[in-house]
Amino acid sequence: MFTFFKNVSREMKKVTWPKGKELTSYTVTVISTVAFMAVFFTVIDIIITQVLNLF
């Protein structure tokens, strides 16, 4: 078990973490994508509900 955590620690030192500007860009991208998908599925749900209520 100690060998596993030692290897994890060694690999984590190789990771390059994003800088502030990159992190901001990635965060905005993720939030806007999630917001778009939420709106998209809400609109699709409303359309399907309206179509099903016609029958």
Short description:
With 55 residues, the chain is an all-alpha fold.
Low-pLDDT regions = none
Q: Helix-strand pattern, N to C? A: HH
Q: Biggest β-sheet, characterized? A: none
- Tally of contiguous helical segments: 2
Distance between the termini: 61 Å
Shape: elongated
Number of strands: 0
Find the structural class using helix and strand composition.
mainly alpha
Please indicate the percent range of residues in DSSP E strands (runs of 2 or more): under 5%
Instruction: Indicate the radius of gyration in whole angstroms.
Output: 22 Å
- Estimate percent helicity: over 70%
The average pLDDT score comes to: 96
Q: Any descriptors?
A:
82% helix; 2 helices; 55 residues; single chain; mainly alpha
